[in-house]
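Backbone-to-sequence.
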């Protein structure tokens, strides 16, 4: 089966780069369109606390449109900075959404009728995995299409965990 459309979710972290790279290489080989998808968590009701001359002030978070605009810029920078060797070889559609990552990824895959999702795992194990769960694990469980997960090299996962 030849893939015509691939979804590559990213949280813009260093650990997500191997999955995006693999998706770019696969899309280039297959001649497929690649949707690079970043989902932003957002809670408009939660105040942001900042210091102003030593006083703690509660202010509202930026609007959804402000956050999405900034994350569109960050996604474009992420692609340009990390994948300059591949971006000209692939038809890329960068997209940003707001919501729960695993849910939005599964919904996007279905809405776009993608042939495959390619995403990195972050290599978390033990208590940390139990507490925060795994976006990749939930996507694998819930997506209607095939999901290819790419594990980071051990030194990448160790470096990121130590940071």
């Amino acid at each position: 089966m030849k893939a015509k459309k691939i979804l590559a979710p990213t949280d813009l972290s260093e650990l997500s780069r191997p999955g995006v790279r693999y998706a770019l290489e696969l899309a280039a080989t297959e001649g497929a369109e690649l949707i690079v998808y970043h989902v932003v968590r957002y809670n408009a009701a939660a105040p942001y606390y900042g210091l102003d001359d030593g006083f703690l002030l509660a202010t509202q978070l930026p609007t959804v449109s402000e956050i999405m605009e900034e994350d569109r810029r960050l996604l474009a920078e992420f692609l340009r900075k990390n994948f300059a060797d591949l971006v000209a070889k692939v038809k890329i559609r960068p997209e940003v959404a707001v919501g729960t990552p695993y849910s939005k990824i599964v919904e996007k895959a279905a809405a776009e009728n993608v042939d495959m999702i390619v995403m990195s795992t972050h290599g978390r194990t033990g208590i940390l995995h139990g507490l925060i769960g795994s976006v990749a694990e939930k996507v694998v469980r819930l997506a209607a299409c095939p999901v290819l997960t790419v594990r980071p090299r051990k030194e990448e996962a160790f470096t990121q965990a130590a940071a």
